[in-house]
Design brief:
Elements: H1 2-20, H2 27-32, H3 34-48, H4 57-78, H5 83-100, H6 102-110, H7 120-136, E1 141-147, E2 151-158, H8 160-168, H9 174-188, E3 195-198, E4 210-216
Helix pairs in contact: 1-4, 1-5, 3-4, 4-5, 4-8, 5-9, 6-9
Length: 222
């Protein structure tokens, strides 16, 4: 988890800074190193203030990742990007790591493999909740709503990203992390796997839970 988290942060930084070099509001500070130093210092300070959320190894890594993301967001806003622009830039930058690792992530997180496309739904039903609890730690709360031969509906009623970013005062940044789900979901819903996915509500949208609804292709969501 630690090396995975470090790879995500490095990829986020590299992608964001590459993009920033093409924006006149940012390129001077990025080239001079001023932006980098500011973000690193602020991320470390934010991270130090979040000890109450570091309840296990998984949450410690998530807090570090979220702290760095918030520091980037603050630095972007200080340089005249509005909230929508800053969030869009972060989504694009963070997507790079997820896109490059989508197949490996699908296998590690869900057990979905191109070597066994017909077993994709069964693997998702068995692993989404179980591996989510193992990977993301005790600050996430999963509940299995439906689990049968055609549907696996799992709700997340507590999310560390949601609680952490709201406590920091940056709820507008939560969708940056939610957006990553759409990328791995695009991989596991490739026609080869025969899997459908829907996420009609999220905590970030002020709903009561995030609803992750997997089903075999052609199955009604009802």
């Amino acid at each position: 988890m630690r090396s995975d988290n470090e790879a995500r942060i490095k990829s986020l930084k590299d992608a964001l800074y590459t993009w920033a070099l093409g924006d006149e509001r940012l390129n001077s500070d990025v080239r001079s190193g001023r932006f980098d130093a500011e973000v690193d210092e602020d991320a470390a300070a934010i991270n130090r203030r979040q000890n109450s959320f570091k309840v296990d190894q998984a949450s410690t890594g998530i807090v570090e990742h979220a702290s760095f993301t918030v520091a980037l967001y603050k630095a972007l806003r200080k340089r005249d990007l509005d909230a929508q622009e800053a969030v869009a830039a972060l989504v694009a930058a963070m997507s790079k790591w997820v896109l490059e690792n989508a197949e490996a992530y699908s296998f590690a997180r869900l057990g979905v493999s191109r070597a066994d496309p017909g077993g994709a739904f069964k693997s998702i039903r068995e692993n989404f909740k179980k591996r989510g609890e193992e990977r993301f730690g005790s600050h996430f709360v999963y509940e299995q709503e439906i689990s049968d031969e055609k549907r696996s509906f799992v709700n997340i009623t507590r999310c560390l990203y949601n609680d952490l970013l709201r406590s920091m005062g940056y709820p507008e940044v939560i969708p940056v992390f939610c957006a990553m789900d759409t990328i791995w979901a695009a991989d596991v819903t490739h026609p080869r796997y025969g899997v459908q996915f829907d996420r009609p509500t999220t905590l970030a949208m002020n709903a009561d839970k995030c609803r992750f609804q997997f089903s075999k292709a052609g199955t009604s969501a009802k």
